[in-house]
Amino acid sequence: MQKQLLLFAIPLLLTACGGSIEGSYTAVFKGRPSMDGKVTLDLASDRSFILTSMGVKSTGTYEDQGDKVLLRHGNGMTSAAVWNADTLLVDGTSFIKVP
User: Residues 82, 83, 84, 86: what is their CA dihedral angle, to the nearest 10 degrees?
Assistant: First the structure.
């Protein structure tokens, strides 16, 4: 019985710890607090994204590779990001997931 309960509980715990990458993120700039909140990144469930920087929007698609994310911008550029819990590090900028 305990073994069956453990086999049932493990996937639930892994799901709870991992979370979903989808959602809204806001950039936090060290040393430039006036920029905080002026750059946002929205990752949709259809694997598209919208990056908004001071009112200017750019779009593209993303590929979730576990702890890494590839952002393919509409202009042909690709950015590699690292995902850890509720933070995405994209080209040196930290994006914090908005609850």
Answer: 140
CATH among 1.10.3720.10, 2.40.128.300, 1.10.760.10, 3.40.50.10860 for 21-97: 2.40.128.300
Q: Is the dihedral of CA 70, 90, 58, 24 positive or negative?
A: positive
Give the integer Cα–Cα distance in Å for 96 and 27.
6
Q: 32: closest CA among 56, 55, 54?
A: 54
- Tell me the whole-structure pTM to 2 decimals: 0.75
Which tens digits make up the pLDDT trace of 13-26? 333 445 789 999 99
Q: What is the pairing mode between strands 39-43 and 68-73? A: unpaired
